[in-house]
Amino acid sequence: MATASSQTLRFPTLSLSLSSKLPLSSAFSVSLRPRRRPLVLLVSAALDAKPTVLVAEKLGDAGLKLLKDFANVDCSYNLSPEELCTKISLCDALIVRSGTKVTREVFESSAGRLKVVGRAGVGIDNVDLAAATEHGCLVVNAPTANTVAAAEHGIALLAAMARNVAQADASVKAGKWQRNKYVGVSLVGKTLAVLGFGKVGSEVARRARGLGMNVIAHDPYAPADRARAIGVELVSFDEAIGSADFISLHMPLTAATSKMLNDETFAKMKKGVRIVNVARGGVIDEDALVRALDSGIVAQAALDVFTEEPPPKDSKLIMHELVTATPHLGASTMEAQEGVAIEIAEAVVGALNGELAATAVNAPMVPSEVLTELKPFVDLAEKLGRLAVQLVAGGSGVKTVKVSYATSRAPDDLDTRLLRAMITKGLIEPISSVFVNLVNADFTAKQRGIRITEEKVILDGSPENPLEFIQVQIANVESRFASAISDSGEIKVEGRVKDGIPHLTKVGSFEVDVSLEGSIILCRQVDQPGMIGKVGSILGQENVNVSFMSVGRIAPRKQAVMAIGVDEQPSKESLKRIGEVPAVEEFVFLKL
Ligand SMILES: NC(=O)c1ccc[n+]([C@@H]2O[C@H](COP(=O)([O-])OP(=O)(O)OC[C@H]3O[C@@H](n4cnc5c(N)ncnc54)[C@H](O)[C@@H]3O)[C@@H](O)[C@H]2O)c1
Ligand SMILES: O=C(O)[C@H](O)COP(=O)(O)O
């Protein structure tokens, strides 16, 4: 695709690029003062003032300290939904546990200020993820620090239930001594079915194996070898519930898992089964569980989580004598809460700094080494999007965008989600008030009816660099700068990264070479001596600093496109004077 190769002569503050192969056009460029900009993927711009973080539920001290070193921290617990909506418009981040519902109204009330929701724990079923994504708000969680605590609570409930610990305790405190009533059942040799063999489920399984139980598990997504490694057999759902003496639930609450245990599935269980739930109340149909307890299908249940928390005071389930209940205590150990607080504070501070979070729930997780490598291309992608959209003539709606990534690596080695998001950001932000980031890019493009197709062009070069160039084409539009329309009729801009700095290397069919910093003036002119000087002196008279200049031409003394990088925005008067230079046929000023 690219045709010109260039030689570059470098001096401390100046570089010259000379094209050597000129089939379509030639390029000459002068570069002054290369600079770098920090990468901001998630937060609209570096926050000028200290950000404000609302901590809506109790958080461990170590996490609070981390937050306070970076932000104004407002710890306001037990807010009503209305109070939360009122406060949120003054906050850049919100940290919650499972007790706060982060609803669509919360995102709407934030009016775009809320950038990060941190869930200090695993389950994010209390956060409206679709609304967060639509509002470009990153959701991060703390997925690892409370795993052991939850598993230990599961085992505690299992043993307590089997030996009637809670009921016997209440009886003794009521002055009774009922040794015959509270005869329990043994765990050793019994079959435990773990439903959901993720972090908590596998830790429960490991511990139950240590108690001498035969452990089976059902999880459609878990690898069998991980289960086998701890002596657990993965089986079908029906086999698991049909053969278990005990069932322990450890799946997330999703549309697919909601009320997984219901009248129909209870009917398939072994009579006298005992159930532990430290996952989410909603995975059990609670009315059906009461029926199953009453009919004897389920002998006992030990529950830490409920559909409604706290449950209604007259809940038949809670009051049932065969039920042991705890108030969502799975993650509540000193150790887990300190760990969770640190894990979530680090994720929130990182996200507020514009970094990608490893625990992002609604954005692609890009490994840090990939991110480091792609960093200059991410910047290039956004700027190409910005340039391309500014070249569209008013009145032509952008609907069809094609992005080509030229790489010498295998197609699977290039993850383009980040680049596509940044091109989308560049395409949409200059023409709207919407803030686009990695979280909401695809959603925002779809909502605006912009179809972005991608292709990878595989080159025969060295795979050392992830990308050779990126090309952005907008089809079916008119351009404010006719020379930006390629031979095939689309607005076309192409860029490369040179020495870590993004460069514009093609406009329409013209090869140029201008560093993508500051702003750019593109002029089409009849190629002739003195043009750079004429335009340069108009800008110089107004003290507009030229950082880069490049001329791409079809052939000597024919049409050429001059690309000029400027640090300041020239006045309308200067731009008018540039347009009046006799050889200038058209020009456009583009903000980066
Ligand atoms: N009670 C508490 O305080 C407490 C503490 C921590 C975690 N939790 C809850 O425990 C659950 C598990 O947490 P985790 O950290 O192990 O999460 P995890 O993501 O590591 O594991 C969840 C597992 O469930 C599996 N799964 C998904 N759909 C399934 C289905 N239909 N059937 C069977 N398995 C399915 C997944 O493949 C995954 O392996 C979550 O609901 C979490 O919110 C509760
Ligand atoms: O999903 C979780 O991490 C647990 O349910 C813990 O919830 P909590 O933070 O409200 O204790």
From TrEMBL:
What PROSITE patterns does this protein's entry cite? ACT (PS51671), D_2_HYDROXYACID_DH_1 (PS00065), D_2_HYDROXYACID_DH_2 (PS00670), D_2_HYDROXYACID_DH_3 (PS00671)
* Organism superkingdom: Eukaryota
List, alphabetically, the SUPFAM superfamilies matched: ACT-like, Formate/glycerate dehydrogenase catalytic domain-like, NAD(P)-binding Rossmann-fold domains, Serine metabolism enzymes domain
CDD domains linked to this entry: ACT_3PGDH-xct, PGDH_4
Main location per UniProt?
plastid
The entry's family comment says: Belongs to the D-isomer specific 2-hydroxyacid dehydrogenase family.
User: What is the protein name stated in its UniProt record?
Assistant: D-3-phosphoglycerate dehydrogenase
What organism is the protein native to?
Cajanus cajan (Pigeon pea)
